[in-house]
Design goal:
Chain lengths: ~325, ~375
Amino acid sequence: MTTMTMIKALNEGLRRVLEDQPKSLVMGEDVGMLGGVFRVTDGLQKDFGAERIIDTPLAESGIIGTAIGLALRGYRPICEIQFDGFVYPAFDQLVSQLAKIPNRSGGRVRLPVVVRIPYGGGIGAIEHHSESPEAYFAHTAGLKVVTCANPADAYWMIQQAAAGDDPVIFFEPKRRYHAKGEVDTAAPELELYRARTIREGRAATLIAYGPTVDVAANAAAAAAEEGMDLEVIDLRSLSPIDWAPLFASVRKTGRAVVVHEAPGNVGMGAEVAARISEECFYSLEAPVLRVTGYDVPYPASRLEDDYLPNLDRVLDAVDRSLEY
Amino acid sequence: MGDQQRPAKKTAKNRPKPASTNEPAFVQLLTPEGQRVKHPDYDLTLTDDEYRGLYRDLVVTRELDAQGTALQRQGQLGLWPSLLGQEAAQVGSGRALQPQDTVFPAYRELGVQWCRGIDLISSFALFRGTDLGGRDVAADRFNMYAIVIASQTLHAAGYAMGVAKDGAVGTDDGEAVVVYHGDGATSEGDFNEALIWAGVFNSPLVLFCQNNQYAISETNARQFRLPPYRRAEGFGVPGVLVDGNDVLATYAVTQAALDRARHGEGPSLIEAYTYRMQPHTTSDDATRYRDEAELDFWRAKDPIVRYRKWLAAEGLADEAYFAAIDTEAGELVRELRSRVMALTDPELTEMFDNVYAEMPPTIAEQRAQAVDFQASLEEGSDVR
């Protein structure tokens, strides 16, 4: 076990990928000399060379489009999109090309491309630097979408994503980048597309992912002080979703609250609530509730504490669920 | 209603004069009258068989393409994007390719596909809707059709980066990559990003623009103020304008660009100046935006007529040869037609099976549900 930040864990995970897979590449804006604006790729160019750690022109569609071409040539690109709000110029290359070319080919072409995207708010940033666009990509067949919530998952999930032959959108919760955690570098605890129950309880199920896992865990700890035991599940994979542990949990607790930063409207929480109502209808004691960002553009940073799901909003939703 | 003036006329009167009636200075080795002419920078010497082979390619391409239009009219294809008029651009460039080169087509490159010796059925299956046009692209060195305009230019730029990374350039047998696109594609961001990438990474990429004068209904005047071959220079990429209806000139120009690329000297852009004689696709009505006079202007520049004149004048081929090619093309058309008609609908499960390398349980579950549901309907119909 080693203690490290999520940034360090990602960096170490990428190093393992680059060592193990000679065809892997890291490409994106400022990932080379600078080491990335968050320093996730710090030192990689020095150790693996500019042929493999590629500073690209400033064009997101170009990054993903050329990564597709490199993958067609047999390379395994790991792309960095600098910030969540900058991914949209690459939207066609992601949803109409990267996601669909393997299917278009009848399975003859595989595109092992990982797209890392720092996402979410809570860092006092200017516009376009705090968004949560995961639902767009989870909605797109052909892409897999995952997100890590702690350094151990960051370390292993980036390696697991790079090891597969499917395109993976890899969301990194940037407000958790500097949080430290224990990392067991010997073996991964879970497969990539598995949800994890991080706290067991019987009163209600909190379902979170990425940056809100910590929020949900803190809410559960506070509830425990009041004698209420909440179960907390970290989804980890947003497409596909590992449904079995969710259904088992809700059948036990009878109540579920989904927590995410993205707006609620047509968000991940809507899908989770719909599937739980389909599969756990006779176990439910209350409708599935959601604690999410509001259905507005991400606000100016001085308002973000009111926009983001926090401990009080989560506990309020739990209370409403229990009062049903 | 019937007395009102048709808006199409108004559009025709107001639209900008098409660039196609102001012929620019381009590389030409064979005039529309069939005269071989010299160019200071480009020349082409082929064997007699190769010269005759180009004629065969042109005629076969035209006939197979015409069959695509016919099959659509007969309800056998959902859509067909005809290449009529662009045969020389495709055959000249297609024959300049070496076996180790890789092609990224748009969606009208039947002639290039023919020159590469790849089974054409995949393109017909795509437009029949029996599959999505999938093939073994690595073995064919000819990628799938790209429907989203200019999206393939970036794939080609990335692939070309990979070729250079592999050290597969710098010799006579080095690899080159060619990407086909149209004049409309030059307005897309992806095209311009591909030029930036190819330029800054000095990739072995040839961008082959078939300027067929139209992006569906919009003329060049709505796509650019400076023609693409001149814009290339702004990206640090050499550009050349070639008579796209001259099979010898497109061959010579493409060969030079490919040689440059395979020797590690970097990317270039070719603008092949040609004309789309048919509507954009079988779903388009070109009479709403262009007139017969314009078509007549381009009919006089037909790529096959001029080449046949030259072959005959040089004594490279005679009427018996031309007749034999017509017969062979007819046989190829009949064979293709019967194979297209024999393409059957895919199995229900095919839509699920190739989405991922590792099928998620969620899709496996939906696949099973769809199969069960279909079976339940069939059982139900038996009962009735």
